[in-house]
Amino acid sequence: MGLETVSNSTNKFVTIVNGLFTIRLPDTSDDPKAVERTLTKGPNAGKVVKELQFNKLSGKLTSSYIDKSDYGSSLIFNLVDGSESFKLQLPVESQFFSQIVKRLPNFNLDSEETEFNMGYDTERDKPFTYLRQDGATVPMHFTKDNPNGMPQPKQKTVKGEKKWDWEDQENFLYDVAVEFVGKFDGSVGLKPEYEDDVPF
Q: In this structure, is residue 102 part of a structural domain?
């Protein structure tokens, strides 16, 4: 299954850009399915890049780890589909991180195929991501109605204004991610080396 829109190659680095899974292509690529995007952040701001975009990534999940680099911490999923391999990056500070991590306790490590899907919430006017395995959506283990130990946000007053504090919940979900990646090799899931292929 994999990614029907991607030509054969290995070790594709996948990020989420504007609500779609995205693979950066070489500047010299002439892939007719490529779209152009102008970078707005980082040292390459203003540069026009070529990318492939899609709303589903599937394959056998072979490993996962938490990467810490100059760009911040990210949860990495390595998937293999036939001769192709994909490295999906979910920044810890993104909404997509919490959306996936809340499902990880219900994740089947023995499943031969995992689907990462992108959807769009029309009521909230923003994209979201979710997991599917064995033909069914992987349900969230931590929800507002059934938190299962997940701390709820607290309302704080900062300089006279009431604001929601999500720090306890964010730390809790980070620990859930660390526990998940530790299932693959028994470690805490931290990879000390910097990823040198982050395309930003």
A: yes
Q: What share of the chain is helix, strand, coil (3-state, %, to 5)?
A: 15, 40, 45
174: Cβ–Cβ under 8 A, 6 or more apart, which residues? 92
Q: How far is CA 120 from CA 18, 37, 89, 169, in A?
A: 11, 21, 19, 24
User: For the chain, what is the domain count?
Assistant: 1
CA angle 118, 130, 93 (to 5 degrees): 85
Q: What is the pLDDT of residue 10?
A: 62
* Cα 187 from Cα 178, distance rounded (Å): 9
Task: Give the closest residue to 108 by CA, choosing from 142, 132, 81.
Answer: 132
Q: Is 116 within the bounds of a domain? A: yes
pTM of the full structure: 0.84
> Is the pLDDT score of 182 beyond 80?
yes
Name 96's Cβ contacts closer than 8 Å, sequence gap at least 6. 16, 90, 128, 129
Question: How much is the pLDDT for 7?
Answer: 45
Query: CA torsion, points 66, 6, 16, 45, in degrees to nearest 10?
Result: 100
Residue 196 lies in a domain: no
Please give the Cα distance from 74 to 62 (Å, whole number): 17
Lowest mean pLDDT among 72-76, 123-127, 183-187: 183-187
Give pLDDT, residue 184. Answer: 83
Q: Is residue 85 part of a domain?
A: yes
Q: In this model, does residue 193 exceed pLDDT 50? A: no
